[in-house]
């Protein structure tokens, strides 16, 4: 495929989930991608998956993407800047202020460096989990600083757009505060709640529904990587955790004395504040709006979910989101379909006419 914005050859350092996914996406668009890694076997695996080719003498990349753990990001970026004096260098670490400060202290050429952060990933890492479409529709931050202009870094934005992501410009400090709120603290909360499950007996875990799975989904992430991320962004993470702790203590106090004056209001206010917050999360295409949910019962047989999605399309309704719930041992699953409110009644009627059982519909 030659329909692309990026004109430069690309060198990717680090062949884990993000590096290999970037390589797959760019290679599919006809970009000459070189994959490199401190581990020869990891590099060869990424190459085998089609993420790029092995390094060769005379390589002259125009763009270098560093995809390594946060604690070595700055040193690898500095090495690449020195080894390829004509190349633009970026990285995809999830913390931006610390690597920039390290590079500045090293005296690196910051006029050729702009850090970025794709807000995409999976619970499992490595080249084996990589996908060419991992970044489609996802925000990808360009973390600006005074030593380089966004125009000079145009090739980085071209790469982001070629991978189907949405570029967002933030300075490094605002980026780190933002990801503390929307990524780093949720990881901590998810992990802490999931840790409580080790104390539950088998009967309790059999009752687990989609709500628990949603809250604990990211708890399966790599602890070693997250120790680095949280340590590098500790002040911003603590700034979110402290008021969260205060909110939790107020709820605990209310539940300790649920009949005391004001206790029920304290609990209700906490839950209502959650309603307000979740309503601010942008939906598809960045829309800040609420959708109606339709819950459809789906037989646990091959092809049934595909048939449901096909018939939603045939009904002329645009699906905004999809969640699946399947209890262990059950012969049916529940598909929660999000649609714009004005399409709810029409879709319910259409699906019932086609023989589907609607388990619930709510705004």
Automatic annotation (TrEMBL):
Enzyme class: oxidoreductase
PROSITE patterns listed in its UniProt record: ACT (PS51671), PDH_ADH (PS51176)
Reaction(s) catalysed by this chain's protein: prephenate + NAD(+) = 3-(4-hydroxyphenyl)pyruvate + CO2 + NADH
The ACT domain, residue ranges: 293-363
Domain of life: Bacteria
Pathway: Amino-acid biosynthesis; L-tyrosine biosynthesis; (4-hydroxyphenyl)pyruvate from prephenate (NAD(+) route): step 1/1
GO biological process: tyrosine biosynthetic process
InterPro entries assigned to the protein according to its UniProt record, in alphabetical order: 6-PGluconate_DH-like_C_sf, ACT-like_dom_sf, ACT_dom, NAD(P)-bd_dom_sf, PDH_C, PDH_N, Preph/Arog_dehydrog, Prephen_DH
Keywords, ordered alphabetically: Amino-acid biosynthesis, Aromatic amino acid biosynthesis, NAD, Oxidoreductase, Tyrosine biosynthesis
Any one GO MF annotation of this record: NAD+ binding
NAD found in the keyword field: yes
Transmembrane segments annotated in the record for this chain: none
Signal peptide: none
Enzyme Commission number, as recorded: 1.3.1.12
Segments forming domain Prephenate/arogenate dehydrogenase: 8-285
SUPFAM superfamilies per the UniProt record, alphabetical: 6-phosphogluconate dehydrogenase C-terminal domain-like (SSF48179), ACT-like (SSF55021), NAD(P)-binding Rossmann-fold domains (SSF51735)
Keyword Hydrolase annotated: no
Recorded family membership: Belongs to the prephenate/arogenate dehydrogenase family.
Protein's recorded name: Prephenate dehydrogenase
């Amino acid at each position: 495929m030659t329909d692309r914005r990026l004109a430069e050859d690309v060198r990717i350092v680090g062949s884990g989930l993000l590096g290999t996914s970037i390589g797959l996406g760019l290679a599919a668009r006809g970009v000459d991608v070189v994959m490199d890694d401190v581990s020869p076997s990891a590099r060869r695996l990424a190459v085998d998956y089609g993420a790029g080719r092995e390094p060769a003498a005379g390589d002259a990349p125009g763009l270098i993407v560093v995809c390594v753990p946060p604690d070595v990001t700055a040193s690898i970026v500095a090495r690449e800047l020195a080894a390829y004096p004509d190349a633009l260098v970026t990285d995809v670490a999830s913390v931006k202020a610390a690597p920039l400060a390290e590079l500045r202290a090293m005296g690196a050429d910051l006029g050729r460096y702009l850090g970025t952060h794709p807000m995409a990933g999976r619970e499992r890492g490595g080249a084996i989990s990589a996908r060419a479409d991992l970044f489609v529709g996802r925000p990808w931050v360009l973390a600006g600083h005074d030593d380089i202009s966004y125009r000079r870094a145009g090739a980085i934005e071209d790469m982001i757009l070629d991978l189907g992501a949405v570029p967002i410009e933030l300075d490094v400090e605002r980026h780190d505060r933002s990801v503390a709120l929307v990524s780093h603290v949720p990881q901590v909360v998810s992990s802490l709640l999931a840790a409580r499950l080790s104390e539950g007996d088998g009967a309790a875990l059999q009752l687990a529904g989609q709500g628990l799975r949603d809250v604990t989904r990211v708890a399966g992430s790599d602890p070693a990587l997250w120790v680095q991320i949280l340590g590098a962004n500790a002040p911003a993470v603590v700034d979110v955790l402290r008021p969260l702790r205060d909110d939790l203590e107020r709820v605990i106090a209310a539940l300790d004395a649920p009949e005391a004056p004001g206790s029920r209001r304290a609990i209700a206010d906490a839950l209502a504040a959650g309603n307000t917050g979740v309503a601010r999360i942008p939906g598809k295409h960045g829309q800040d709006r609420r959708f109606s949910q339709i819950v459809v019962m789906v037989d646990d047989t091959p092809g049934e979910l595909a048939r449901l999605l096909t018939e939603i399309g045939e009904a002329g309704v645009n699906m905004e989101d999809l969640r699946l719930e399947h209890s262990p041992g059950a012969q049916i699953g529940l598909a929660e379909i999000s649609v714009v409110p004005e399409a709810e009644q029409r879709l319910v009627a259409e699906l019932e006419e086609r023989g589907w059982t609607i388990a619930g519909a709510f705004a």
